[in-house]
Design goal:
- This is Phloem protein 2-like.
- It holds the Pfam family PP2.
- InterPro entries: PP2-like, PP2-like/Lectin.
- One of its GO terms (molecular function) is carbohydrate binding.
- The chain has one helix and ten strands.
- By secondary structure, it is mainly β.
- It folds into two domains: 45 residues, no CATH class; 98 residues, no CATH class.
- A three-stranded antiparallel sheet has the order 8-5-10, with no helix packed on it. Strands 7-6-9 form a three-stranded antiparallel sheet, with no helix packed on it. A two-stranded antiparallel ribbon has the order 1-2.
- It is flat and about 55 Å long.
Length: 147
Amino acid sequence: MDDQPVGNVHSNPHLIGDPSKVKGPDSDGSFSISVRALNITWGNDPRYWELAKFLYYMMKFNEDAFGWSHAPIKFKVKLEGGNESEVKVNLHKYREKPMMWHKVYVGEFNVVGDGSSMTVEVGMFEVETDWWKGGAILDGVRIEPDL
């Protein structure tokens, strides 16, 4: 049976799990089972299921970084269609471990289907103080599925 979408409806509405999406065992004997490893009734039908995605900025700070403890930094996530969220994060705690990459969690959003044609805009800013900032290194933005 083909599970490709036909118009807005899948010819196979059920999600058939992919066993390769099971990871483990880890050193402690635990396993990670992705949602894509599960058989889910109506799992291919966006009327019933959405997958959550988590958004992270990958950042590190030089030892001489400055200005990051005076005000929280705003991170904005905007989805096509106008849905928008904003969080404030105090980055001072990340600065305490310089030259180490940190995953700075900034949001979560839901995706219908595989999300391959979805547009997501992200922003990072702080405009409420006059404090200069320096010494941050941004590796990029990472979007990860909720496993």
